[in-house]
Task: inverse folding
């Protein structure tokens, strides 16, 4: 009889996760080119559509580049100035005991226009310095190649990932950084939350859709190009880097039927299939049959080239990583209250609490998600984003008492432990935003996730001073005990 696993495995990778466009700043220094993220404005809550402020039109980009947007702030250009504070920040991560740190490389630091012939040495040198600093403390870099920032030139010249030629530019970029950092980085992710290209094509792939006859078809075509690019990058990594591990990354939003009504059950199943389609392709190496009906119903035809199917089949990922913040509920006949979410929302689940931003908090949904993934793929799993965006208050003595964040994380880590006991192979956990950063979906600073407080406000004011929250010492204790001490 097999003995049940008890607790987290030895060598479990505890840490935190960020993205270049949300922390680095220095958007125009040392040869860096503009990206799609640099065009995202700060829009107050009352003026936002669909709860986020992400999609940008060609007309808006033209106006920004022509200098007609002088009174608008672009917070992702500023970040929290990790570019100049990385040593201080990494020292704090090391103090917490991080085993790994997930970060992304800004493609436009390496190839400012995306299609340049030669890489930018200053950009390569910056990441050399960051990786060296991490390794000095024994922290393994976990690096995302593309995290919601496409070089702006690729959007203006090719319409981003809608154009197949971008595959070649991406693989050149991937090969460049694989060769440069082959002795420093052994864990890589290709595209962050790759499924978001079907929800926000501009965010996920630098694709402008306002002139498209079939926006959904354009989005899925761009997604196909990313699938091929991801497979080719995986192939390159395996050829260049000894003992490398390459993963895909999905924004997993497990969807429950709102009731036992078979219509709700079928709708939830369909939504889950559309979400898991992206990992099905990258982990199983082929388009699943259930998408044939979806494509037919939405007049979508995917243009493939000879050899694409073979590329996808031969170069699948080594592990599956994903973000998990909440679950969703679906109703075929929605009525009453709705709930917000990470790019998507649903009907309100009466059994769950909600965050300051209306996201439903569902720790047991993480256990469900882990078991569902592992049953489906039987590949190692890695939770690379999970956290609570909340308003934090600094007390008169400079303290930040964030018991609500500790409570959120404790309940999710408990369910991770349960999933491991269920038999799930879980590699690690990197909480989202170990240090306060610019929100991806709203460009706010006030939506804080970190164990480390950064003195900066939504209007850009502040000293950028770093301060420890109560959760800092709590997470340090969690890591030191390998998840055994959650009190």
Result:
């Amino acid at each position: 009889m097999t003995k049940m696993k008890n607790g987290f495995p030895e060598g479990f990778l505890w840490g935190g996760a960020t993205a270049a466009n949300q922390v680095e700043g220095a958007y125009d220094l040392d040869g860096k080119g503009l990206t799609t993220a640099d065009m995202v404005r700060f829009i107050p809550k009352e003026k936002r559509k669909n709860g986020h402020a992400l999609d940008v039109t060609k007309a808006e980009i033209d106006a920004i580049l022509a200098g007609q947007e002088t009174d608008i702030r672009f917070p992702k250009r500023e970040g929290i100035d990790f570019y100049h504070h990385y040593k201080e920040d990494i020292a704090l991560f090391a103090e917490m005991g991080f085993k790994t740190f997930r970060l992304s490389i800004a493609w436009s630091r390496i190839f400012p226009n995306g299609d340049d012939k030669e890489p930018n040495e200053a950009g390569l040198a910056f990441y050399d310095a960051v990786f060296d600093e991490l390794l000095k403390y024994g922290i393994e870099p976990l690096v995302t190649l593309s995290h919601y920032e496409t070089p702006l030139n690729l959007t203006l010249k090719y319409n981003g990932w809608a154009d197949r030629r971008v595959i070649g530019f991406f693989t050149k970029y991937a090969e460049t950084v694989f060769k440069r950092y082959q002795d420093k980085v052994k864990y890589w992710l290709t595209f962050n939350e790759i499924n978001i290209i079907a929800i926000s094509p501009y965010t996920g792939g630098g694709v402008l859709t306002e002139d498209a006859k079939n926006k959904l078809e354009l989005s899925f075509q761009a997604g196909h190009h990313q699938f091929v690019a991801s497979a080719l990058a995986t192939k390159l990594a395996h050829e260049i880097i000894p003992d490398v591990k390459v993963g895909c990354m999905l924004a997993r939003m497990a969807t429950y039927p709102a009731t036992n009504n078979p219509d709700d059950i079928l709708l939830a199943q369909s939504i889950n299939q559309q979400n898991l389609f992206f990992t099905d392709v990258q982990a199983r190496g082929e388009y699943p049959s259930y998408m044939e009906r979806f494509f037919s119903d939405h007049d979508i035809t995917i243009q493939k080239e000879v050899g694409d199917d073979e590329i996808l089949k031969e170069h699948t990922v080594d592990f599956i990583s994903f973000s998990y913040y909440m679950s969703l509920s679906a109703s075929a006949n929605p009525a009453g209250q709705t709930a917000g979410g990470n790019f998507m929302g649903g009907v309100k689940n009466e059994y769950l609490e909600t965050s300051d931003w209306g996201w439903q908090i569902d720790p047991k949904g993480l256990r469900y998600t882990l078991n569902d993934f592992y049953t489906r793929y039987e590949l190692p799993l890695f939770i690379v984003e999970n956290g609570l965006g909340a308003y934090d208050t600094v007390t008169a003595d400079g303290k930040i008492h964030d018991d609500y964040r500790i409570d959120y994380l404790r309940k999710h880590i408990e369910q991770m432990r349960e999933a491991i006991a269920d038999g799930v192979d879980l590699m690690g956990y990197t909480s989202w935003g170990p240090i306060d950063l610019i929100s991806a979906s709203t460009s706010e600073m006030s939506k804080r996730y970190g164990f480390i407080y950064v003195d900066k406000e939504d209007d850009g004011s502040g000293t950028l001073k770093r301060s420890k929250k109560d959760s800092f010492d709590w997470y340090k204790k969690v890591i030191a005990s390998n998840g055994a001490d959650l009190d």
